[in-house]
Write a structure and sequence with these properties.
four-stranded mixed beta sheet, alpha+beta, 36% helix
C-alpha cells in the first residue's frame, strides 16, 4: 500500500513539474500592465500567433505602426495578435507618458492592437518578458538582443518563441505573412 501511495505522489508531482515546465518556457508565465495600467495576462493569448514589438513614437521606423495596424486588422480574426511595448531605450525616442503614447498611437495611426505600459527592453532594468525573449536559457530557442525600436518577436500559439525579426523588416514582409498564414 505504501508503495502505491509513493508512486501516486511521484506521478502527481511529476505531472505538476511537467506542467510548470511547459509554462516556464512560454510567454504565458508573464503578466504585464497594459497602457492604461490594467493587468494583462499573456496566458489569455493561448492558441494565438503573437507578434511582440517594442515601439517608439519619435523614431524613423515609427511609420511601421501603419503596417502593424493593417496586419492586425487583416489577421486578428484568424487568431493573430500584435502586442506593442513602448520603450525609451534608443536615443530617447519614446519620451512620453503612457497616456501621451496611447493618444499618439490612436490619433496618428489608429492603433487598436493591444499596447502595454512603457518598459525597458534592454540593460539593467530590462523587463522580465524581454529577459525571456532575449535569453536562450529562458526561451529555449535563441539568444538575441534588441537592436532598435520595432524589433519583432514571433510567438507560436503554444507560447514558444518562433523567431526574432529585425527592426528594419517591415511588418508585412512575406516571411512574416507566411508565418501567420501557416497552420502549425
Amino acid at each position: 500500500m505504501k508503495l502505491k501511495h509513493t508512486l501516486l505522489v511521484f506521478m502527481i508531482s511529476s505531472t505538476a513539474s511537467i506542467a510548470q515546465e511547459k509554462i516556464e518556457n512560454t510567454i504565458f508565465q508573464f503578466k504585464v500592465k497594459d497602457i492604461d495600467g490594467q493587468d494583462f495576462d499573456l496566458a489569455s493569448l493561448k492558441g494565438k500567433k503573437i507578434m511582440i514589438v517594442n515601439t517608439a513614437s519619435k523614431c524613423g521606423l515609427t511609420p511601421q505602426y501603419t503596417k502593424l495596424q493593417a496586419l492586425y486588422e487583416k489577421y486578428s480574426k484568424e487568431d493573430f495578435v500584435i502586442v506593442g511595448f513602448p520603450a525609451n531605450n534608443f536615443l530617447s525616442q519614446e519620451p512620453g507618458t503612457n497616456l501621451e503614447i496611447a493618444t499618439f498611437c490612436e490619433s496618428n495611426y489608429g492603433v487598436t492592437f493591444p499596447m502595454m505600459s512603457k518598459i525597458s527592453v534592454k540593460g539593467k532594468n530590462m523587463h522580465p518578458l524581454y529577459e525571456f525573449l532575449t535569453q536562450e536559457a529562458k526561451n529555449g530557442v535563441v539568444n538575441s538582443s534588441v537592436s532598435w525600436n520595432f524589433q519583432k518577436y514571433l510567438i507560436n500559439p503554444d507560447g514558444r518563441l518562433a523567431r526574432v525579426v529585425s527592426p528594419r523588416t517591415q511588418p508585412d514582409d512575406p516571411s512574416i505573412i507566411s508565418w501567420i498564414e501557416t497552420n502549425d
